[in-house]
Specification:
The protein has seven helices and eleven strands. By secondary structure, it is of the alpha/beta class. The chain has a nine-stranded mixed β-sheet, sandwiched between helices. The radius of gyration is 20 Å and the shape is globular.
Length: about 290
């Protein structure tokens, strides 16, 4: 088996589902990686990948511990598959940093592992920057490889062509679909003025995932962190007239809760995110 080193003592899995999330691209506000980290809390690692073949260490350097002038430990970036048993089914979580290299090979290898483990479905978790206010519930849209995989109350991605820079996660999802494993994705929309981690979006992703697999997923400390972030953002906005007026415009533009932006609007926000634009009609990044 290429790339993945699978443990010999993997238990027999019950209706396993494989959830994937990487940090970096399509992880606005750290929402997807935070959700995956919370999901994998206390889980057992059953598969790993040699980081030397996936990562550019000059762009994602390992962390070095120096104790009393002596080099003691290197913490390397790690891409792993974790296993946890939830109620009547098993959940696998492929998470870690987004790889720099060998995406196509990684997709094929991940699909091979999934088939070997009897995975019934792949679920991508992601988050994108969007012109949405932090004062409303986090909108989440879904993708699916076939009709009927998403619940009726899940807003599906925009109609028509949406051409955006690809993520490694999308390569893996397409590889899964290519070998016959049904795939879905849930993508939270994070206010583009939030400059740090955004716990409400991680909670929204876990909520959608839990409802999709009919399991109540633990949130850990995310609920408290979301309340604290809401308070900090409210304080920052109220202290700045321009920011407050901008937020009011977003609330007006948003219309009904959960309304979904058009493909052009999504592409515009993604382009803005990539270019890291500041100024214009937007308030300073907050959070």
């Amino acid at each position: 088996m290429t790339l993945f080193q699978l443990r010999d003592d993997v238990p027999t899995l019950r209706a396993p589902i494989l959830v994937g999330a990487f940090d970096g691209w399509i992880d606005a506000g750290g929402a997807a990686s935070t959700a995956a980290g919370q999901l994998a809390e206390g889980a057992t690692t059953i598969a790993t990948v040699d980081p030397d073949v996936l990562f550019d260490y000059r762009s994602r350097r390992p962390v070095l511990d120096v104790v009393d002038g002596t080099l003691q430990h290197l913490d390397w970036p790690a891409l792993v598959v974790a296993h946890l048993a939830l109620d009547e089914r098993d959940v696998l979580v492929l998470h870690g940093p987004e790889p720099d290299f060998r995406w196509q090979e990684l997709g094929s290898a991940a699909a091979e592992v999934a088939l070997r483990l009897g995975v019934l479905q792949w679920v991508s978790l992601g988050a994108i920057p969007a012109a949405v206010p932090h004062t409303r519930p986090v909108p989440v849209f879904g993708t699916a490889s076939a009709d009927g995989l998403l619940a009726d109350d899940v807003e599906k991605g925009p109609a028509g062509l949406l051409r955006v820079p690809a993520a490694a996660l999308s390569v893996i999802e397409m590889a899964m679909a290519g070998v016959g494993i049904p795939t879905v994705g849930f993508y939270g929309q994070v206010p583009h003025y939030v400059g740090g981690p955004f716990a409400p979006a991680a909670i929204a992703l876990l909520d959608h995932l839990g409802r999709h697999i009919s399991v109540d997923l633990p949130l850990g400390g995310l609920a408290d962190e979301a309340l604290a972030q809401r308070s900090r953002l409210d304080t920052a906005v109220n202290a700045d007239d321009d920011a407050r007026q901008y937020l009011e415009r977003l609330e007006t533009m948003g219309g009904d809760e959960g309304s979904f932006p058009s493909g052009d609007e999504l592409a515009s926000e993604i382009e803005r995110f990539l270019q890291d634009e500041t100024g214009g009609d937007e308030p300073p990044r907050l959070g």
